[in-house]
Specification:
Elements (H helix, E strand, L loop, with lengths): L2 E7 L6 H6 L6 E6 L6 H8 L2 E4 L6 H10 L5 E5 L3 E3 L1 H12 L3 H10 L6 H4 L3 E10 L2 E2 L9 E7 L4 E2 L8 E2 L5 E3 L4 E6 L2 H21 L6 H18 L6 H33 L2
Parallel strand pairs: 1-2, 1-4, 2-3, 6-11, 6-12
Antiparallel strand pairs: 4-8, 5-12, 6-7, 6-8, 9-10
Amino acid sequence: MTLSVVIITLNEIASIGATLDSVRFADQVVVLDSGSTDGTVKFCRDWGAQVEVSTDWPGFGPQKNRALAFATGEWVLSLDADEVVSAALAQRIRQIVAGQSAATTSAAVATGQPELSAAEQAMVAWHLPRASSYCGRVLRHGGWWPDHVLRLSRRAGARFTDDLVHERLLPPSGPVGTLAEPLAHATYTSLEEVLAKVDRYSSEGARQAFAAGKRCGFGKAVGHGLWAFLRTWLIRASILDGPYGFMLAVSNAEATYYRYAKLWLLGQQAARRIRP
């Protein structure tokens, strides 16, 4: 069997090299770019990836479905441009995609990898535990570990949800497993990146909620922001990650507050337009 890796990009020159190098074992690597101006497209083409360009940004879910349409492998691995597949995870994915052929079984024994059971061979998709870093520090609390994400799936019948943000990969019907080998994710490399993503994601989240008919008051925005901080800091114990955990709790609160505040403002603007 064969494996396609799909990645969407926008100005990812700082991180895409490590991502691409970590999936050299794949049969096909598809990069769908949405208008990079930093050399990402040329870099990916020179690396050997199949690069497509689509600049009419429809949101994360629809854009990833576009990338998925270019994939030809029996299996597909979806990655963000700041994620890296470790050597152990790469070996495990190769084993799964190969369906535990005789050669793969021998390689698994030689490297200490567990052989696939009959039940594992029947899996149509796999969750990967994701180890995410915040400003250079890998966090183990606050809901960031193990942060299982469904990223590896048989391609036939798989698709992404149409969400503008926080999209999910929907696998074909069948059993889904969970791997132990983590995917490395450099979520935020700086506070400037945190603030930029908070602004972008909260705007897209508000627009998506408004289009779905959701509305909220300003008090709800404040309440949701406070709850996001307490849930991250205390309930999900980001306090155990020290200063970085506190910054995570604050940024989660900001992201939540601004999403609801922007939703409230959209409602206010709509109300002014329909007043006689």
